[in-house]
Amino acid sequence: MAKYSLKTRSPKPAVDLQRDLNPQQRAVVEAPAGKILVLAGAGTGKTRTLTYRVAKLVAGGCQPERIMLVTFTNRAAREMVHRVESLLTIDMRRSASGTFHHVGNRILRRYGEAVGLGPDFGILDPEDARDLMGSVVSELGMAVLTSKRFPDARVLTKIASQAAGMLGTIPAVIERRFTRFLDLVAPIDKVLADFKERKRRLNMVDFDDLLSYWLELLRDPKHASVAEQLRGQWDHMLVDEYQDINVLQGAIIDEMARDHGSLTCVGDDAQSIYSFRGADFSQIYDFRIRHKEAQVLPLTINYRSTPQILSLANRSIARNREQHPKELTAVRKPGATPALIPLRDVIQQGELVAQRVLELHHEQSLPLRKMAVLYRNHAHSLELQVELTRRNIPFAVRSGVRFFEQRHIKDVVAYLRARENPRDALAWLRLLRLWPGIGNRTAERVASVLAGEFDAFGRRLPVPAGPPAPVPEVLAAESKQAKGRAKDALVTLAKLFDRLLEAGGRNPGRAIEIIVHEHYADYAERSFENADARKEDLDNLANYAGRWEDATEFLSELALIEGISAENVVMGDEPDDKLVLSTIHQAKGLEWPVVFVLWLVDGRFPSSQALRANAELEEERRLFYVATTRAEDDLYLLYPTIEEGRRGPTTVLRPSRFLTELDHDPPVYERWEIEEVPPEEEG
DNA sequence: CGTTCCTCTCTTTTT
DNA sequence: GAGAGGAACG
Q: Which residue ranges run through the membrane (predicted)?
């Protein structure tokens, strides 16, 4: 992606540590290069502190490209890079900044050959990984695999992912987290080994591989010289959101920092909310065990929220046993008491939020973008979305279906993937099936030949499969074998690929235009009711892709970028000022003057799964803590009291235990009563 | 073999 | 309210 920033030869930092930082923050910024763990509460200026530490390093003569700055989420990464760049007017593009996965991707593009990856390896998104797993299972054709009790492809990828994340074996993961499959350890192990092999054949990696191979480069004695080169490229390592890393990431961090020893990690154990994907917040405690010499520095002064909001948050998190007891201190003046609002049902919950948003917007001139509605999972926001649409309140959903995970986007992207990495059988399969006359059978045969997995006689080829055959030639040959509509389709497809491989088609944006123009527009007309909207999406995608010169880079970006919701990208002419709707996970690190939290009902938030185990309940409470600490001035906690079953009876809902457990003196919230205004008095 | 239409299942959270 | 998988038809 094109990114611009001004660059000065000698960075002149507009940095004044005395003026800009409090003593706790200054202690972090000024600590000599070494092992540092910063325990930073919500809203205590964590990003600011880390940014200034980078500034200090650069001011001290360190080249930005010799700093590695990694975080867990895209958002945090972008925020961090942006703030460093604006503070220092330097270009951080050369530095290794971004999510672990981005940095891993960059490193493997360059050094992946050592672990057997071609330079144009593709990245499997979770859906692809699941499909691939499914085909591995069905190809193995073992009897156990078809039994009802055998884990499905999604669960299998989960097991593989957990094993990668905790640096454990498959049996160990099953023993720890999937005991119901204990008697299936051997076949599961076999399937996952095949899955790994299959990824290699396809020259593809999944998200976990981006990190696993990175660690392999650092640890395996076979790659000692690569490891040395890697370590030698950076002098300092800084890690944000340390509470959300897993064992694998922890190991990478330690290995990367081994020689230079300059490692600054920032995190808040109270905000660890990703254990479901292997984040292991004991990492943050083990840090001091692994690095005995590490300095531990606290940040506890909260600049964000009113004391009222903080007392609520403090009281809630204090109920967690697994935590560092710490109180956030408020510096802001007292404000409004958080509101607890019971509603009749979800409909009323949506109405009330919409109404309150409008009141604040019109009566207090608060822009919509200064307000956010947070919820446990995206389904919780549906009724609200309906109500907001009805009242014409613009909103942006920061969750839901990802733009690039929609079918039409993935279809078109499959062409790019196939062009960049012809061994990507999944992409071939996907795009072949779009053609009339080509069904599963034909698609599978042609895809495996194109991918070089099999020769034309159905014999499995060894890996590496030699130089890939020219795609148009293979397609032409296959078309001769086919008949009827499939024949026509393959002939047309061969021509399309000729065009895609021409120089003009190299640019990803241009390539997408060709694909849509030559094929997909027709397909969309035939297949979708909302073909126009989808074609518009594809125009936007072509535009977006046009910013990259190199399609492989574009594809990596697309796979690793955070979920831009469809709404966010698609609409071109919408107002800037929009109410924010977000899952709590996606809201981490952000703040708004006004925050609404929806669906505070036992079984929803905390979720019913979490009610079963205490460790999970504590994680949910941390999530609640994250939600409440997003609010600066006003916090509204809402819950419906009854739910009308679609088919079944109406049920009475219990308010979330995260609310009732706070209900003692002095009160931390104020209960609001809702009275319906008769229609004639409205207005 | 390919297509279409039906039912069933799911929905934590993200890279 | 979507996606996967199965059944039945062309």
A: none
CATH fold, domain A405-551, is PCRA; domain 4 (1.10.486)
3-class DSSP state of A194: helix
- pLDDT tens digit sequence for A602-639: 888 888 777 777 777 888 899 999 999 999 999 999 99
Q: Are A519 and A496 in contact (CB under 8 A)?
A: yes
What CATH number has the domain spanning A17-109+211-295?
A: 3.40.50.300
A45 is in an annotated binding site: yes
The Cα–Cα gap between A301 and A304 comes to: 9
In the block, residue with structure tokens 């998200």: A207
- Among candidates A376, A249, A324, A337, which has minimal Cα distance to A41? A324
Give CB contacts under 8 A, 24+ apart, made by A332-336: A332/A302, A332/A303, A332/A304, A332/A305, A332/A306, A332/A307, A333/A306, A334/A306, A334/A307, A334/A308, A335/A306, A335/A307, A335/A308, A335/A309, A335/A633, A335/A634, A336/A306, A336/A308, A336/A633, A336/A634
Beta strands in A258-354 (DSSP E): 263-267, 295-299, 301-302, 329-330, 339-343
Tokens of A466: 């030699």
Task: Give the Å distances, CA to CA, from A314 to A271, A319, A588.
Answer: 12, 9, 17
The two beta strands, A96-99 and A329-330, are unpaired
Is the minimum distance from the CB of A385 to strand C below 7 Å?
no
Residue A46 annotated as binding site: yes
Q: Which CATH class is domain A329-394+577-671?
A: alpha beta
Gap between the Cα atoms of A310 and A175, Å rounded: 40
A44 is in an annotated binding site: yes
Residue A470 has pLDDT above 70, yes or no: yes
- Asked whether A347 and A384 are in contact (CB, 8 A), the reply is no
- The residues of A between 77 and 116 with beta carbon within 7 Å of nucleic strand C are none
Determine whether the distance from the CB of A406 to the nearest atom of strand C is below 7 Å: yes
Please tell me the pTM assigned to this model: 0.85
At A507, which amino acid appears? N
For strand B, give the nucleotides within 7 A of a protein CB: 1-3, 11-15
Tell me how far apart the alpha carbons of residues A223 and A229 are, in angstroms, rounded to a whole number: 10
DSSP one-letter string for A430-467: HHHTTSTT--HHHHHHHHHHHTTSB-TTSPBPPSS--S
Q: Contact A456/A484 with Cβ under 8 angstroms? A: no
Question: What are the distances in angstroms from CA A564 to CA A400, A540, A560, A586, A632?
Answer: 9, 13, 11, 11, 25
H or E element, residue A650:
strand A650-652
A18-66 per-position pLDDT tens digit: 888 999 999 999 999 899 999 998 899 988 899 899 988 888 888 888 9
Q: How far is the CA of A525 from the C1' of C1 (A)?
A: 21
Give burial (CB, 10 Å; 0-12/13-18/19+) of A358: middle
The CA–C1' separation of A302 and C3, in angstroms, is 45
**pLDDT higher than threshold 90 for residue A546:** no
Say yes or no: Cβ of A485 under 7 A from any atom of strand C.
no
A127 touches strand C (CB under 7 A): yes
Q: How far apart are CA A238 and CA A227, in angstroms?
A: 19
Q: At what angle do helices A307-317 and A614-628 cross, to 10 degrees?
A: 170
